[in-house]
Amino acid sequence: MATSPLINRLIPTVAPRLPSSPQPPDQLYLDQLNNILRLYFNQIDGTLGPLAGGQGGRFLNIPYGAFQDTTTQTAPANTAQVMRFNTSDLTNGVTLGSHIASFTASIGAASTTMTVTVATAGSIYLGMTLTGTGVSAGTLVVSQTSGTAGGVGVYVVSISQTVASTTITGTVQSKMVVQHPGIYNLQWSGQFVNVAAAIHEVSVWLRKDGIGPALDVVGSAGLVSVNAKHGAFNGGAIVSWNYFVELQAGEFVELWWSTPDVDTYIIQYPAGVAPVRPSTASVIATMSFVSALPA
Fold first, then answer.
1. What distance lies between CA 9 and its chain's CA centroid?
2. Beta 222-226 vs 64-69: how paired, if at all?
3. C-alpha dihedral sign at 96, 213, 246, 253
4. CA angle in degrees (0–180, nearest 5) for 262-233-190
5. 42-73 pLDDT tens trace
6. How far apart are CA 162 and CA 90, in angstroms?
């Protein structure tokens, strides 16, 4: 049994080429013209009818993106840190972008202390993954202890190692970049854990690209209390809310967070047993196109 193409997509219409009229117009010409216009109007009806119907939205190709991170994310106390993503689940006009920094540094000896002597390009972000000659795979920037913020100075990395002075590249994938201008709905959730015996708080806010550097969005911060550890069980909370954001093509938004205590952080849990259940992402975010920008 043949399937109507309208089940899967709308058929675009193309304006017909109308025949030239003889002088004077005759009945054959008028019949041909009417037939061409009738077929064209039927095409328009066939396109607009399903679109205006009760399920017309299923034919629309609307920009969207869905992202997650499958690693645990920590932050130094009282320090702003960007949330990162390592997985794109779905993308259609919304993609992930990265902050990239290049610098000369050494790590050692057999320690987690990295000394940056030359900042070549970009700014060093906490949470960046480091690559370079002799750098252990999976090494992250944990904190900065001295120097110029994001530049020359001393940092703590996540893996103890010895690396002679070399060129290192730092990358953190955190930008949600849109290819089309519009108003977007950003929905996010984070799996927070608290391993301390006292309640701790986390702040989460939005940073948006624009003219000049990306800036924190006024009024976007949310403050959440994460339950204290109780007995053998750590405290925890799944935090979630949404933002409506106006973006031009090529602009991006990011989620940032901070906590006053390192005992509270964003956690990823492995798959469980008894009962068998899937793993958890530390952070999930979706971006959906809502509307064109106001005229």
1. 28
2. unpaired
3. positive
4. 55
5. 888 877 777 766 666 777 789 999 999 999 99
6. 39
Return the pLDDT at 53.
67
Please tell me whether residues 102 and 76 are part of one structural domain.
no
Which residue has 């809502």 as its token pair? Answer: 290
pTM: 0.84
pLDDT digits (tens, 9 = 90+) for 221-231: 999 999 999 99
Residue 89 falls within a domain, yes or no?
yes
Give strand pairing partners of 184: 245, 289
Biggest CA-to-CA distance, the chain? 97
- 40: helix, coil or strand? helix
Q: Identify the DSSP state of 115.
A: E
59 is written with which tokens? Answer: 């034919």
Q: Count CB atoms within 10 A of the CB of residue 191.
A: 21
Domain range enclosing 161: 98-173
Quick one: tokens of 294? Answer: 């106001």
Give tens-digit pLDDT for 250-264. Answer: 999 999 999 999 999
Alpha carbon 189 to its chain centroid, in Å, reads: 12
Q: What is the mean pLDDT of residues 98-103?
A: 97
CATH number for the domain spanning 242: value is 2.60.120.40
pLDDT at 57: 72
> How many structural domains comprise the chain?
2
Closest listed residue to residue 266, CA positions, set 238, 230, 233, 240:
238
Question: Token pair for residue 47?
Answer: 């396109």
**Structure tokens that stand for 158 in this block:** 């996540």
> Using CA atoms, how far apart are residues 166 and 26, in angstroms rounded to an integer?
85
Same domain, 223 and 132: no
